[in-house]
Amino acid sequence: MEENNDKAEIYSQRVRAGKRTYFFDVKSTRSNDFYVTITESKRKFKDDEFSYEKHKIFLYKEDFVKFMEALQGTIDHVKSELLTEEALAALENPTETEATPVPVAAAEVSFDEELKWE
């Protein structure tokens, strides 16, 4: 059981976006199969303290190609059909730092002390 916990989270990438943070995590199952979780974490102020609201989806390997095609098609549509040239230029030259992949092991995972999930 302990060995499985070490394998549970294999890779993590965090994208900070204002009050939101997106986490892209690769995890393994008990049978050593792999899947991706995509989590949106949004900071909220409630009852004189901060908390975090999260939404999570699970993406299984058999759906990777379909998911990526749909996501890329949607992004391409927005870029080509809905955005002005100025908005597109701003998107392609972001001012915030890029997402950085972070290898993780179960023992290395830590969160801010104020992190609270609802």
Automatic annotation (TrEMBL):
The keyword DNA-binding applies. Keywords: DNA-binding. Pfam families: DUF3276 (PF11680). Belongs to the PUR DNA-binding protein family. This is DNA-binding protein. It comes from Pontibacter amylolyticus. The lineage of its organism: Bacteria, Pseudomonadati, Bacteroidota, Cytophagia, Cytophagales.
